């Protein structure tokens, strides 16, 4: 007898790799690795790891990086001692690195994927996302523009415009089992275009791309249709938390995230 989706505990893959060359944000902070940039007094990697470990639905966290031992050696000491936190070595590509470990003994299904540059993630947001996955093989979290701009007017993101609104990714992905592997192959094809909205849309295929460009299909419908083309069930999980859309890629993101965290963690008046 298999567990129902609601009773499963997930393995979280925490992506903490470094892209080729010098990361300008890390360089401006005087830090060798972007994942270790401090924010509100704590490295981003540690913040996201703590949040994941606090989630009732998550069993273990695996930090995936090209040099995981060196990364953890430079991270807060508690991470090396945490029994539910492990590391795995990745390669040059995100999706191929995930595919190499997901579903193995060290990273059993189902798998949640998120990133170290997402320090505003909360337990509530992660649990909302996982509850929305249901029985889908693959699920993707996103935030609609009105949700983000209602809280943070004018915040700049990469927007995908569909019939049901303009959407930006929330760096939360669910992979429930081996049926999700074709999605990882597809992910490998779009990695270079993830910040270029028009190019990214064309990876849905010509017909779906045309419907997206003419806004005759919603993002949820497009993701479901793309999943059917790959022989799997794919689902969009819209998130109500505007901060789920704010990852830290540039100095303005870092400053905004710092303000949000300081406000969250300020003692009650």
- How many strand elements? 10
From the 3D structure, determine the CATH topology: Spore Coat Polysaccharide Biosynthesis Protein SpsA, Chain A
Largest sheet: 8 strands, mixed
Distance between the termini: 51 Å
SSE layout:
Blueprint: E1 10-15, H1 24-29, E2 38-39, E3 42-43, H2 44-53, E4 58-65, H3 68-74, H4 77-81, E5 85-89, H5 94-101, E6 111-115, H6 123-133, E7 138-144, H7 145-151, E8 160-162, E9 165-175, H8 181-190, H9 197-202, H10 206-213, H11 219-229, E10 234-238, H12 251-265
Parallel strand pairs: 1-4, 1-6, 4-5, 7-10
Antiparallel strand pairs: 2-3, 6-9, 7-9, 8-9
Helix pairs in contact: 5-8
Question: What does this 3D model show about the protein?
Answer:
The chain has helices at residues 24-29, 44-53, 68-74, 77-81, 94-101, 123-133, 145-151, 181-190, 197-202, 206-213, 219-229, 251-265, and strands at 10-15, 38-39, 42-43, 58-65, 85-89, 111-115, 138-144, 160-162, 165-175, 234-238. With 269 residues, the chain is an alpha/beta fold. The chain has one domain: Spore Coat Polysaccharide Biosynthesis Protein SpsA, Chain A (Alpha-Beta Complex). The strands form two sheets. Strands 1, 4, 5, 6, 7, 8, 9 and 10 form an eight-stranded mixed beta sheet that branches. Strands 2-3 form a two-stranded antiparallel ribbon. A hairpin with a 2-residue loop joins strand 2 (38-39) and strand 3. Helix 5 runs antiparallel to helix 8 (181-190). It is globular. It starts with 9 loop residues before the first strand and ends with a helix.
